[in-house]
Design a protein that fits this description.
The chain is about 65% helix and about 5% strand. It has helices at about 5-30, 40-45, 55-60, 65-75, 100-125, 125-140, and strands at about 80-85, 95. A hairpin with a 7-residue loop joins β1 (about 80-85) and β2 (about 95).
Amino acid sequence: MHNSEAMALSAALLAVAGELTQRINDGVVARGFEGMRPAHGFAFTRLAPDGATVTELAVHLGVTKQAASQLVDEIVRKGYAERRPHPVDARARLIVLTERGWACTRAAEEAAGEVVQGWVGVIGEGEVRALRDRLGRIAPYGPIRPAW
């Protein structure tokens, strides 16, 4: 593959990722979860299912502990998460999603389904499944986080 082809593929993947992120967030907001930003969704992917400390969240998001702490303060204030005692480390607090946080996560899942269904209309279900499988082979375990 020539560099120009690689760059075109890179640009297409980044454009799709950006559009997908925005459309999921728009779908979440349209479902009544006002004030949500894509950064919240990226944090939710780390908090579900078992919670995380602020330090773990910072590593996941690729931000400072202070930035992660501010994000946690915001989602706690909005009722999407709560701080609990850590089950193993008495010095740490575990940040977990509340029922409102889980409802928001379900709304994001529904919005993602709508976006992907649109792709099915363009390239077909088999091609979408093949795309999912191939991308999963390239990046099977990478964190779902923004490229700040």
